[in-house]
Amino acid sequence: MADKRRKFDAEFREGAVRIVAETGRPIAQVAKDLGINETTLASWVSRAKRAGGDGTLSVPEREELFRLRQEQAAQAKRIKELEMERDVFKRCIVLWVK
After folding, report:
1. Is residue 15 part of a domain?
2. Residues of the domain holding 26
3. Distances (CA, A) of 87 to 32, 78, 81
4. Helix %, strand %, coil % for the chain, to 5?
5. Residue 48: pLDDT band by 50, 70, 90 thresholds?
6. Phi and psi at residue 7, in whole multiples of 5°?
7. Using CA atoms, how far apart are residues 67 and 76, in angstroms rounded to an integer?
8. N or C: which terminus of the chain has fewer CB atoms within 10 Å of its end residue's CB?
9. Distance between alpha carbon 48 and the CA centroid of its chain, in Å?
10. How many domains does the chain have?
11. Residue 21 neighbours by CB distance under 10 Å
12. What is d(CA 89, CA 85) in angstroms, rounded to the nearest whole number?
């Protein structure tokens, strides 16, 4: 008979990925220590990297980072607009003084 597949909860998977990311230990060694298959852990690590970095950020942290980057881009755009307006006013003053 075929073996039943073991199920691992999200907390365990995240912890295993965090161990690999933070300690820098090889996936094979961490998998052996945790008693799981090496390819299973490797797939968790690659999935975490695709999902947003090395798996150390939680979903709310990633959402906040995305929001902050959007705000930063909007502020940079506004700064450029203000600099253009300032340059136009400088030119106007120079023309007015002459």
Report:
1. yes
2. 8-56
3. 64, 14, 10
4. 80, 0, 20
5. confident
6. -110, 135
7. 14
8. N
9. 10
10. 2
11. 16
12. 6
